[in-house]
Structures are given as C-alpha cells and as structure tokens.
C-alpha cells in the first residue's frame, strides 16, 4: 500500500435496547492489505435498521454474536488500493460489496473474489444487493412463485417490498400491495400493483376477502403481528405464506395473555396451506446467480429502484438513518452517503 488510511466505522460495543445505546463510531488505521485483497472507499451504504436493532438486542440466534460487532452489510464504493495478485480490478473502479460488518464504515478491505464491479457510483446499486436478491430468492426458492397467481405483499413500498412487487409482476401474477399512507399507495401504483390496500384507512382482511374470496396463493410478509393474522385468514387452498421478517413484533413481549387465537395448524390444515420462512443469510448458494440476473434487469432498465427521499450524509448520521427506517416512514431503500 502506498499510504495509511484513517477510517471510521460503527461498532456495537455492548448489547442494548437501541443502536444509539449500544454502538459507537470508532477510528481505525488501515496500512496493509493481502495480495488477494482490495481496499475500497465506501461512498454509499444501505440501511437495514430492523436487522441492526435485532443485532444490538441479541435477537439474531443463528449468528451467536458477542460484542464488539462491526455493523452494516451492503455498500458501494471506489477501489483505492489493489493487492499484488489482483488483476480484475484497478484503482478507480466502482464496486459493490455485501458482507456483514463491512457496510457502516468509511473504508473496507475485502477479498477481490467477493467484490462485484458496477458501472457507476449510482446509489441505486446499494438497493440491488442484497435487498433485491433477498426478494427474488425468497419468492423463487421459498415461495415457489408461479404465474397467473395472486400475490400479496406487506410493506410493499419499502426497500424490500418494491422488488417483491416487481418480480411478482414480471412472473405474470396479480399483485396486491399493502402499505400505510397515501404517498406509499401512490408509489405502489407506479410499480404496477393491480390492487393497493392502505391499512391506515382500510381493513386489510376485509379488503382481501372482498377482492379474492377464494384466497391468496402467495403472500410475502415482513410485518407480522395483527397483519399476519389477517393474511393467514386469507390464504387460498394450497397457498404459501413466506415470512421474511416480523417488524411489528421484533423486540416485543408477544401476545398478551388475554388474547386468544386458534393454533396455526387449525387455520391452515384444512386448506393444505403452508407457512415458510426465509432468512437471506441461510440461502447464500443462490445469491450470485440471482445477483447476475438482477444486475442485468437493472442495466436493461427493466427493474426500477426507489431510494427514500430523505438524505443522510456522513457516518454520524447512521443513528438517525436507522431510527428513521425503524419508524416505518420510509418509501423505498434508505441510504447513507459517506
């Protein structure tokens, strides 16, 4: 390396209720890379506030993490140094990376074999990997998406939901987008949703029953809670419900003792329906192939990307960006600019 770089990153130093309470921005020096690595200056990072909050609360059991924990996943940036054995990247190349602990930092060192070259530093690329990848892999591998079905999507106007909607439409399905608020509903119409249900002004369960009395074939849910109950009630015979998160219940205390509902098998057995769960980190064998298809779709302008309009600039803004995403106000992918 030709110089030493000073970099700042967000690191969880203790488990806590919020990222503000448990994580701090710390400084590190980077003075060397291996022969097969490259040094990247990050320009944009994708915000995954619900995952960050789960990490800081020690609610991600499959990782068994203990502080200190570097946070952040996806980023795009510029190559500033290359190892001696690296031949497929040059200084100045724009690149995309997706690895836990590498996103919320100003510089990152990464093995060249895990880095994707991209056409530009357009921040829209941040939304493609792994967010759009999650949408596609979950629909195809877990939801076993077909064509000519009815697909319902919760949080459809979010960073992930926008891609679930588009991929379901590309496959030739009718899509119902569920969201909260007129601005989000308007956005979903631009994506081509056949029906939009605004849970703030409409009863989701009743609307689904009225629109599709025979039920929904495939449901993609990231919200959970009361909405999950309404979605379950409207599964079609042999329908599939993909659980890809449960934002409304994360960190919650569960159902009050006074609330009773049928056990889940009572609701789905007589329909031969299925509930399936998707966790992106446990489906890594499908990531590369899905990434290639998604990048091709984006480059050919067949896939739209919506970034949230609110700007977060500088690593110090990470706390605000995470809080904002967790508040449920965002439309599209929330991004930080370093």
Structural account:
The chain is α/β, with parallel strands linked by helices and 338 residues long. The protein has two domains: 5-126 and 306-337, Quinone Oxidoreductase, Chain A, domain 1 (Alpha-Beta Complex), CATH 3.90.180.10; 144-277, Rossmann fold, CATH 3.40.50. Helices cover 27% and strands 26% of the residues. The protein is built from ten helices and 16 strands. The chain has helices at residues 19-22, 49-56, 128-142, 161-170, 182-191, 204-211, 225-233, 264-268, 287-299, 318-326, and strands at 5-12, 23-30, 37-46, 69-70, 74-82, 94-98, 107-111, 116-117, 150-153, 174-179, 195-198, 216-221, 235-243, 274-277, 312-313, 335-337. Strands 3, 5, 6, 7, 8, 15 and 16 form a seven-stranded mixed beta sheet that branches. Helix 2 (49-56) crosses helix 10. The longest helix is centred in the middle third of the chain and has 15 residues, at 128-142.
Helical stretch count?
10
Mean pLDDT: 94
Please indicate the count of domains.
2
Strand content: 25-35%
The radius of gyration over CA amounts to 21 Å
CATH class of the largest domain: Alpha Beta
Short description:
This protein is α/β, with parallel strands linked by helices. The chain is built from ten helices and 16 strands. Helices cover 27% and strands 26% of the residues.
């Amino acid at each position: 390396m030709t110089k030493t770089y000073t970099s700042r990153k967000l690191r969880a130093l203790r488990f806590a209720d919020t990222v503000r309470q448990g994580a701090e921005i710390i400084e590190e020096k980077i003075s060397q890379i291996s022969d097969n690595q490259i040094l990247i200056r990050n320009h944009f990072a994708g915000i995954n506030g619900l995952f960050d909050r789960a990490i800081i609360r020690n609610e991600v059991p499959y990782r068994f993490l203990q502080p200190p924990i570097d946070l952040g996943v996806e980023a795009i940036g510029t190559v500033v140094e290359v190892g001696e054995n690296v031949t497929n990247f040059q200084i100045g190349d724009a690149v995309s990376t997706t690895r836990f602990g590498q996103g919320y930092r100003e510089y990152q060192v990464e093995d060249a074999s895990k880095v994707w070259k991209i056409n530009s530093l357009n921040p829209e690329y941040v939304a493609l990997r792994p967010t759009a990848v999650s949408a596609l892999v979950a629909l195809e591998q877990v939801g076993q998406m077909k064509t000519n079905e009815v697909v319902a999507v919760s949080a459809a106007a979010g960073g992930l939901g926008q891609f679930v909607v588009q991929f379901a439409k590309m496959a030739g399905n009718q899509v119902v987008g569920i969201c909260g608020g007129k601005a989000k509903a308007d956005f979903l119409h631009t994506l081509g949703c056949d029906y939009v249900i605004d849970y703030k002004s409409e009863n989701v369960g009743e609307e689904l029953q009225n629109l599709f009395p025979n039920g929904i074939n495939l449901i993609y849910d990231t919200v959970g809670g009361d909405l999950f109950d309404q979605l379950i009630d409207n599964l079609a015979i042999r329908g599939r419900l993909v659980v890809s998160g449960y934002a409304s219940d994360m960190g919650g205390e569960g159902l009050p003792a006074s609330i009773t509902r049928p056990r889940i098998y009572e609701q789905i057995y007589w329909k031969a329906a299925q509930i399936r769960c998707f966790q992106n980190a446990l489906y890594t064998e499908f990531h590369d192939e899905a990434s290639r298809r998604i990048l091709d779709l984006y480059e050919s302008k067949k896939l739209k990307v919506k970034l949230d309009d609110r700007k977060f600039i500088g690593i110090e803004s990470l706390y605000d960006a995470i809080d904002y995403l967790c508040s449920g106000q965002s439309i599209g992918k929330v991004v930080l600019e370093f």
